[in-house]
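chain below, 228 aa
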Amino acid sequence: MKQLLESVPSLVTLSVTVCFVIFHYFFRSESIKHMFRGGVPIEVQRLSTYGQRVAGFFSLGVVPGIIAWCLGLSVSELGLGCGALDVSGGLVLAVLVIVLPVLKIQSRLPKALEEYPEIRALNWTIRDHLLNGATWCLYLVSYEFFFRGFLLFTLYSAFGLWPAICLSTVAYVFAHLDKPASETIGSIPIGLLFGWVALTSGTIWGPVIAHCIIAIANDLFCYQRRSS
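prediction:
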């Protein structure tokens, strides 16, 4: 039993590596992304974008969840409980007050408009808005569980607060290397902050809500800019 407990961080780290490599190269590759921008029908592009997010939900959420269950990790050990609502609420408030105005300004940059929104239709329907928001939320719940729940909380139990935060942030930054430089650089403070909030509050739900707000708002700001 002792050997199994000591091997859990290694098994989780290996699982995170394999799951993300599979997701990245089979469902989020740069070649697929550029193909979608090369003149394919917009409905195909919509379905492919939604499909990538759903695939992310399974490869970054469902599969790690099954692995965590097999390893005997509890809900609290994965950061899925309610936790301290004041800490989580403080993060969400900071995103609304500080991050959203920055995103609004950033949406004026050509590089941001090249990347977002992923749905490239110039005129969105209500269905586009709803499906974009719903699939973002589905994907980001699994994404935050993957980095801040499955990985971070397991590292925390083995190494303590700041080593776990720093190690999970390294993984989080590497996951953003195919993004624009500003987003990759921004993933460093975001990774540190989200990790600290998750462990301090005892739950990943603050980072989940904050990340969903950021993603959906960024799409809306860039969409408004592109269609104006």
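Residues 1-5 have pLDDT under 50 and may be disordered. Residues 2-227 form one domain.
thats it, cya
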